[in-house]
Design a protein that fits this description.
This protein is an alpha/beta fold and 423 residues long. It has helices at 75-84, 103-116, 139-144, 160-172, 184-187, 197-200, 208-224, 236-247, 258-262, 285-297, 312-315, 332-341, 348-363, and strands spanning 2-12, 17-26, 29-34, 44-47, 52-55, 57-62, 87-92, 120-123, 149-151, 176-179, 192-193, 204-205, 227-230, 252-256, 302-303, 378-388, 407-417, 420-421.
């Protein structure tokens, strides 16, 4: 298939290109980039006037819920949501049912995703069997099957010795750990940030819950040499510890989710709206400011969604009993543009770095680059288009978002994955 993208602003962090140009795609590759290209023999011509032509977005933190929780999401609906949000590669977390702690479950997701083909799905393996924190998963078997990303997402490995053992094994294989930082005994049934517990009449979660494990695992990463990636950072402390770790030359990176750099715990209207319940919780305005500053200064490398679909029935329950999490694949790019780019924290180039180039480098995949000869994973994004979030229009099964009815600026126009138009 021959595709020409005309009149767009090509933004490519890999070679720092930022200029008006046409892009020619054929046989799944980018064949030419020039100020003007003839479109006579193209099968499809995409008019990108006023749009940014960027490397396809990469989300390092997605819950597909398949196998075992397909009432919330399936691999196919999750992929459709990802494509609709501008993503061409996603990393699926291991906390499915059964847990991805073995080769068979790993291959189930991999094969089903490959059959769909609209988005590349990298499946993470769990660090411990059943996410129970007692015994390591079949790390060698998963590594031999092609797995290079490991996470205990939803939990932390509380046994420090076991975590260190896993780090040595994963480092030797050239893999990375996506780290959910939560000192579980300190949570004590908390569901919102500690500062808002009294106002909302709900048990609180302190910043220390996140900061303690982040600090511990950074220290273990320094000792073992593994690449450690801190997931869904939400505190000012996480920004400080990550900055210091990088200054020391420790192999670490970190991500921030759009809900954490957009909303604060003060925005929770009351304890009846469980769409504001997420883990880690929304933090204070001071934390939000630190996260935005950390993204602007490059302390945080990535923007990830922590896309966590749940059924309407689950989220309709009591705040303390409802599950943590919100969907995010289909609002992430617009929130990034609305809050960070239009707010002066990121340039358009910075957005492409945080949503594509940096994740590709951390994951060690040959994506996030739309230079000539590279795979044609491309997102065409209209930065001026305004729209109102309507969860009923989501491709995801999940409707659990605190952004319903919010007017955003910036919308994905077209997505190309491996040379095929997927949106």
């Amino acid at each position: 298939m021959k595709i020409i993208i005309k009149n767009g602003r090509v933004i490519n962090p890999a070679d720092r290109m930022d200029s008006l140009a046409d892009v020619f795609v054929e046989d799944g590759e980018i064949k030419a980039i020039a100020p003007v290209l003839r479109s006579d023999d193209a099968d499809t011509v995409i008019d990108a006037s006023g749009c940014w032509v960027m490397p396809g977005f990469i989300d390092m933190h997605v819950h597909l819920r398949d196998p075992g929780q397909t009432q919330k999401e399936t691999i196919d609906t999750g992929i459709e949501a990802a494509a609709n949000g501008g993503f061409t590669t996603i990393v699926a977390m291991a906390n499915t049912s059964p847990v991805v702690d073995n080769i068979d479950t790993y291959r189930y997701v991999r094969d089903k995703a490959e059959k769909n083909g609209k988005v590349t799905v990298l499946q993470a393996g769990s660090i411990t069997k059943g996410l129970e924190g007692k015994e390591l998963s079949d790390l060698k078997g998963l590594i031999d099957a092609g797995c290079r990303v490991f996470s205990e997402d939803g939990k932390s490995v509380m046994n420090s010795a076991l975590m260190r053992q896993a780090m040595y094994i994963i480092r030797k294989a050239g893999g990375i750990i996506l780290d959910h930082c939560e000192d579980k005994p300190l949570v004590e049934g908390g569901v919102v940030n500690m500062t808002e517990a009294s106002r909302l009449g709900l048990p609180g979660i302190s910043n220390a819950v996140e900061d303690i494990i982040a600090t511990r695992d950074i220290m273990l990463a320094q000792e073992t040499g593994v690449w450690l990636h801190l997931c869904h950072c939400s505190t000012a402390g996480a920004e400080q510890y990550l900055y210091r770790a990088k200054q020391l030359g420790i192999r670490v990176s970190g991500e921030v989710c759009p809900h954490h750099f957009t909303l604060s715990c003060e925005d929770i209207p009351d304890k009846t709206d469980t769409n504001y319940k997420m883990n880690p919780p929304l933090r204070t305005r001071a934390d939000v400011a630190a996260l935005r500053d950390g993204l602007a200064k490059g302390v945080f490398d990535c923007i990830s969604t922590d896309h966590a679909p749940h059924t309407e029935e689950e989220k309709a329950g009591d705040f303390e009993k409802a599950p943590f999490g919100i969907v995010g694949l289909e609002t992430a790019a617009a929130l990034t543009n609305s809050v960070l780019v239009n707010g002066g924290y990121l340039t358009p180039m910075g957005m492409a770095e945080k949503m594509s180039y940096n994740p590709s480098r951390i994951l060690g995949i040959d994506r996030g680059d739309i230079s000539i000869g590279k795979a044609a994973d491309i997102t065409v994004f209209d930065p001026k288009k305004t729209w109102t979030v309507n969860p009923e229009e989501f491709k995801s099964k999940g409707r659990n978002t605190p952004f319903a009815g919010k007017k955003l600026t910036g919308q994905v126009k077209t997505v190309i994955h491996n040379g095929q138009i997927t949106r």
